[in-house]
Amino acid sequence: MKILVLNTGSSSVKYRLFDDTATLAKGLVERIGEPGGDAADHEAAMQRVMAEVDLAGLDAVGHRVVHGGTEFAEATVIDDVLVATVERLVPLAPLHNPAALTGIAVARKLLPAVPQVAVFDTAFHQTIPPEGSTYAIDTALTDRWQIRRYGFHGTSHAYVARKTAELLGLPAATAKVITLHLGNGASACAVDGGRSVATSMGMSPLSGLVMGTRCGDIDPTVIFHLHRVAGLPIEEIERSLTRSAGMQGLTGDNDMRTVEHRWQQGDHAATLAIDLYCRRIKEYVGMYLAVLGGADAITFTAGIGEKSPEVRAHSLAGLTALGITIDDPRNTRNAQIISPDGAAVAVCVVPTDEELEIAGQVATVLSR
Ligand code: AMP
Q: Pfam families of this UniProt entry (predicted)?
């Protein structure tokens, strides 16, 4: 099946063309609408994509859509009703869903005969049971304002958990895997038999693990205090917690390579930041071991998870009593399995591939 996967942002379109699992072409149209940018608007960007790649015989377009609310638990063929629903969900993802809607509108206009499918970051987490997705606040508020844990990075967690089961020869229907997606954004997920049962991001991608510029879990009182006592406007607090927090806030650097370099030189701020970053991962691993009743595997993925032996070793240090051990030589060379042979819990490194997962989900939906 020939499938074009589109990831449309507010000022960029990332694309990849697949023939089944083989990549035929990929590229990025950037700085849309900016002076000197690649394209004047999203329609011009899409036209550029269509000029750059051979779309003859295209079977489908797959669109990455960040927020599907509780309405979408799987990839879904796009029609007017879906578009209206995604529009209704804009308040839950004000930066991301409008861009996806633009990408969908332009692709439907320019490729009217080609089926289009939406693949949602949130969909995989719709299997989290209510006690894992509900916040313990007044239900009158949560019901009226759609407040709950949605979770994100779903295509990555789904892909990586499935690949881990394949790698270890575990039955997909029963494998218990803790996936740790550690990139610029970061989240943990507990996957039981291919279904998400817990994840660290919540109503937004701000909660859970420490990230490049996002704070992860904090007491909500921090926000009241910054507003009432420090006098910061709410928009400034939001900007600080999403753009100037995490590794950026702790060290002034958001790139883990730089922070690790400073840590190796004995820099105090970098040492605290890495300790905090890794301890938060360890806390989530402990929580998810409990939620799952033990795990077959813990898998690291995304930029930091795939490439930082230090973060992996530091995050899982001291867990031998729980059957979790890392083999240093395997870890240092970024092997696929970095635990010793025969370990009770396998520790793995599996590169994520969200576009490939999107293409696979599109093919599954259309072959039904
Ligand atoms: P992603 O969002 O998956 O592209 O991941 C981006 C993050 O991966 C950034 O924080 C990078 O600093 C980090 N990263 C990339 N390569 C390495 C590396 N070799 N060691 C540590 N972190 C890395």
A: Acetate_kinase
Q: How far does residue 256's CA lie from ligand 1's centre (Å)?
A: 6
Instruction: Supply the DSSP symbol for 340.
Output: P
Contact residues of ligand 1, CB 6 A cut-off: 183-184, 212, 255-257, 260, 302-304, 307-308
Which residue in 69, 158, 95 sits closest to 354, CA to CA? 158
Centre of ligand 1 to C-alpha 93, Å, is 25
Q: Which domain holds residue 84?
A: 2-120
The rounded Å distance from CA 303 to ligand 1 centre is 4
- The one-letter amino acid code at 278 reads C
Q: Is 79 annotated as a binding residue?
A: no
Question: Does residue 115 sit in the same domain as residue 179?
Answer: no
Q: Which of 38, 121, 192, 296 is catalytic?
A: 121
In a domain, 6, yes or no: yes
Number of domains in the chain: 2
Put simply, whether the predicted model's pTM sits higher than 0.90 gets the answer: yes
Token representation of residue 364: 């599954």
- Among this protein's residues, is 121 annotated catalytic? yes
- CA–CA dist 311, 176 (Å, integer): 22
236, 344: one domain: yes
Reading the chain (368 residues) residue by residue, the pLDDT tens digits are: 999 999 998 889 999 999 999 999 999 999 999 999 999 999 999 899 988 999 999 999 999 999 999 999 999 999 999 999 999 999 998 888 999 999 999 999 999 999 999 999 999 999 999 999 999 999 999 999 999 999 999 999 999 999 999 999 999 999 999 999 999 999 999 999 999 999 999 999 999 999 999 999 999 999 999 999 999 999 999 999 999 999 999 999 999 999 999 999 999 999 999 999 999 999 999 999 999 999 999 999 999 999 999 999 999 999 999 999 999 999 999 999 999 999 999 999 999 999 999 999 999 999 98
CATH of the domain at 103: 3.30.420.40
Do residues 175 and 308 both lie within one domain?
yes
Task: For ligand 1, pick from 14, 257, 258 the residue to mutate: most ligand atoms within 8 Å of CB.
Answer: 257
Helix (H/G/I), strand (E/B), else coil: 112: coil
